[in-house]
Amino acid sequence: MFFKIRNGIVLYLHTTTQQHNNNKMNILILGSGGREHAFTKKLSESTKINKLFVAPGNAGTNEIATNLTLSPTNFPEVKKAVLQHNINMVVVGPEAPLVEGVHDYFLADEELKNIPVIGPKKDGALLEGSKDFSKQFMIKHNIPTAKYQSFTSATLNEGKSFLETLEPPFVLKADGLAAGKGVLILNDLEEAKSELEEMLSNQKFGEASSTVVIEEFLKGIELSVFVLTDGKNYKILPSAKDYKRIGEGDTGLNTGGMGAISPVPFATDDFLQKVEELVVKPTINGLQKDGIDYRGFIFIGLMNDNGNPSVVEYNVRMGDPETEVVLPRIQSDLVDLFEGVANRNLHEKSYEVTPQTATTVMLVSGGYPEAYEKGKEITGFNAVEDSIVFHAGTTIKEGKVVTNGGRVMAITSFGDSIEEALEKSYKSIDKISFDKINYRKDIGFDLV
Ligand code: AMP
Ligand code: GLY
Hints:
Layout: E1 2-6, E2 9-13, H1 16-20, E3 25-31, H2 34-44, E4 49-56, H3 59-64, E5 66-67, H4 75-84, E6 89-92, H5 95-99, H6 102-107, E7 117-118, H7 122-129, H8 131-140, E8 148-152, H9 156-165, E9 170-174, E10 183-186, H10 189-200, E11 211-215, E12 221-229, E13 234-236, E14 241-242, E15 245-247, E16 251-254, E17 259-262, H11 269-289, E18 296-305, E19 308-315, H12 323-329, H13 334-343, E20 357-365, E21 388-391, E22 394-397, E23 400-403, E24 407-415, H14 418-429, E25 437-438
Parallel strand pairs: 3-4, 3-6, 4-5, 6-7
Antiparallel strand pairs: 1-2, 8-11, 9-10, 9-11, 12-13, 12-18, 14-17, 15-16, 17-20, 18-19, 20-24, 20-25, 21-24, 22-23
The chain binds adenosine monophosphate (AMP) and glycine (GLY).
The site of glycine has 7 residues, from loops.
């Protein structure tokens, strides 16, 4: 029971959120990747859990939770599952349901409105859903980021002229969600102009590129910092670095991520202090000033240029595979932290992180990120002892665990050093096999 004052009238409310404090909870996690398996595992370790559900999940989540066959962007289906299984909290893994307004859908529904959703509403999700919005937000709140201008097909010629004022390489970004493919970095001015035209006039990335952000190229080394916020209070989660390219030495096509390391050795206390003062605080304050009630994760992609942080992008969710190294390092109860987000008392929650290093190496299907086959039987992963096996693109077919996506499993290990943790991950990988298995053998190569 708690009360709330509205227009001078004291309302006594008995909300579902309140009930959680006494009772164990049923939590639904939306998504199906390694990130969601990592969430499921961490939540399953909480004493506050009654039942865990994952929609749609994978073969790994199925072992520790109940998978539900439904799409996270089909909100009426999500509602049905929430009511059927007496769900008390929903944790959103990927960006699509957030950008499409799953949190707003809950708030607008009489039966769902008291069930907390961990993840921002549509207004906050624009930080990832629109590059133009996120750039405007950063400029408005004085958050360090690359200079930019935005263009549409009506201002194509101005866009070409703007490119002429910049030094190569040229950075072109589709405004909307483009499945991680909407950013082009080009060395040649003429190529940049013609790609701009492709994006604006010929819809190279569909609707997503009807507005294009052109920005200055940032030098430096990239890393990510994650924040969990209740809209006012925040916890800065462990930093991580991921390896996005398919090929060793960071070559070849971009992927969702081939491995990750946490903490990041070059993210010194001094640097992280700057990130907190120059980026995290102005971001949280900016959201409040703009009337955006943001409850969930903020993934801040940063460039470290000689010790100075600059924001490359915001995402409104955790990273994958970064989650597979960030969450295992968090020693506190994740349900308790999520209750802090829901009840806006995150500052009262205990939050501890192991100083140990975590590394993860992603096993992928041969061919990924281009065409690849599915349905290959995966063996040996049950024999892994020194690492945590997070399933990503896996499913169960005829009683066997088989591949079901490009990124198949993330193998996470701990160590006192990056080398020690990686050695364990690679030894564990030696036990695992499936047809056309591929992985990078050089995760962390630039850090050791
Ligand atoms: P984004 O989707 O904005 O994170 O961009 C994808 C990737 O492109 C980033 O992870 C960076 O590696 C790179 N990138 C994006 N913007 C810039 C920039 N302004 N300067 C240098 N690299 C960038
Ligand atoms: N690994 C990068 C991402 O999740 O966006």
